[in-house]
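Worked example 2:
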Amino acid sequence: MKFNESWLREHVAVEADRDALCAALTAIGLEVEGVEPIGGELPGVIVAEIVEAVRHPEAERLQVCKVAVGGGEHVQIVCGAPNARAGLKAPLATVGTLLPGDLAIQAAKLRGVESFGMLCSAKELGIDPDASGLLELPADAPVGTALSAYLGLPDARIEIKLTPNRADCFSIRGIAFDVAAALGAQVRAFDAAPVAATASATLPVELNAGADAPRYCGRIIEGLNPNAVSPAWLTEKLKRCGLRPISPLVDISNLVMLELGQPMHAFDADRLSGPIGVRHGRAGESLKLLDEREAAVDAGFLVITDADRPVALAGVMGGFDTRVTDATTRVFLESAHFAPSAIIGRARKLGLHTDASHRFERGVDPELPRVALEYATKLVLDSLGGSAGPVVEALREADLPQRAPVSLRRERLARVLGQRIDDAEVARIFVALGMRVETLHATDADSDDAAAGANGAGWRITPPPRRFDIAIEEDLIEEVARIHGYNAVPAALPAGEIPLADHTETKQPEAFLRRQLAARGFHEAINFAFVDAALLQRWSLDDHAVALLNPLASDLGTMRTGLLPGLVEAIRRNLARQQTRVRLFEIGRVFHAPATAGAAPIETRRIAFAATGPAKAEQWGVAARPVDFHDLKGDLEALAGPAAARLVFEAASGTPWLHPGRSATVSLDGEALGFVGHLHPALAKALDLDGEVVVAELELGLLEARAVPKAGELSRFPSVRRDLAVLVVEDLPWARLEASLKAALGPLLREVRLFDRYVGKGLETGVKSLAMGLILQDVSRTLTDRDAEAAVQAALAALERDCGARLR
């Protein structure tokens, strides 16, 4: 938000100088991002009038001007400005004046003709970048008056950074209330007296958008002078706020918007047939906007209609067909209130950003439309002449947003701020901010507020309609804190008991998982939850992806459906910076579109880790080898802790981003946990990765769960070992055999050890030999050879039945 200092001081009179004013703005949360001085005291520069202008005898581009300087005196000035002419009033720097840039004005001869001073452009005075000609002053500017006094100089353009909740400060008057509260002043009353109707022309107004458009005001003004220009004071205010003057009607609407915060629009009344309406768009409708682009609208947009024909996008931009032109003599001036939810995101959807949408999206005072219309009408009549018709207002009063009273407890305020603030100061702050204050006492037995606090004392505050950000007690405490001064809040350490976190043995905390991975050489990565849609498509992870309506950037437009795409991108960037051994992990959420339209995206917590380069850091004690599947499998088993014994790994198939034959799906107690394996070579090539990258991604909820340890009896009897070797098909996972053995032998089987695997000569193709040791033990007796033999036979029978195994 940009505004000029002198305009702000018109609304609130404060004695603070510019530096103190800017410091106060920043201190109360309206951060000043820049201050650009406009002009200076300009001693020696006065308002002058060119009485006579004749061509220089020796130079075609110069004129010899006779200039009135007041008091009946005249001076001779040689001027080369193209707009120098008799009757023009312009600034004159008299002899001895020092202009910005250390330009000293002295009497001189130009091509043999004496000149006693210099007629100035806006740039030479440091007021505006315009150097195309002399600064033209209004015809009623008093000759001989100091220019600085006439133009209100020195001035400054101040730019503040606003948070989205402070929509009221998108106007000079809104900022004035904050300044008044901070510097102990009062905002001046605003004069917007109703303009009496002197014409009878009207257009009926209809509201058909429910609560999205509860108020719409308009009036016809006719008999306008199409040759009129904006008054100098108006254009000067706009320029000092960083806006370029365009035409009287546009300039007036911009001035009202900057001063009051109410966007407005003017239609050419001769291009309207009426009635004027507000409704939601319809599928297939389109509208040519003022910038001549064709906008497709739907039911999500609000449109202004003329006899049901869309003529403007409500709260965004007017239509091309009903625009005002240089020939317009009749206008329909409108001012309305639209609900923020009906406007937010609509301009962005069309690739637009307008001052009107910026304000309506955040919330505009619902009581402003009538005030702004009357104010704008007066400005139009003063600048362009004409006569105004009666105001037509359509109102759905029940749908207007209401600012409900909010209670503030004195004890709560003191507790949060750590200090007691005088009651009179609290009341002063709220009154200066334009709020209605009612003091509550403990004796107010009929008040619910009195029963709320420790002693029931406090205030009931009703915020003004423009303050959409005041809804709960904490909002009021924030207002007191920022106006009273954050620097006045005492610095103190928190006191009191801190409750202990309730940890359960059935869950491994995230911190434990982080420590485990860090101990195994991984570094934690934190990536955006937004990724490029093309990246997800390359990974074949774009199914059920959630697209963002308002992305931070074009390559951050989709919510991630997996952690690995971002994690592998981080690995790729590290490799590009000569990091040969990279091991990263991330814990975060992934998002999928819901099955039901309109529902919230489905969020899932996951953990992922990835590694590339040597398995071990460079050293002399271990031979170098690249990281492989078994390295990450070991990391996963360490991460699972006691649950590692219940993990089941099965060869992965049909997963487009994993290497077939070098990857596995992982399940825990029969539930899918995730996967681990090498990246598919085609994907690695597409991602410009030269070496092998091994990855794993797992459901965090399953991995966090852990069984509570239970004490068991240790057997006093010796164990018995029996070895056997079986032949099975080569692609049968060991986990299948292990599960079959445990099911067949039950508690008798203490442990099973796989100690040999053989394929090759002497075996059929596609068959492998697995040799295992069965550790048998009973808690009540010593096992005999007959017991052991029976167990072996039971094991072989189960392996043959469940896995198709046969004894070798």
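The chain has six domains: 2-39+156-183, 45-153, 205-399, 406-484, 510-704, 720-807. Residues 445-454 have pLDDT under 50 and may be disordered.
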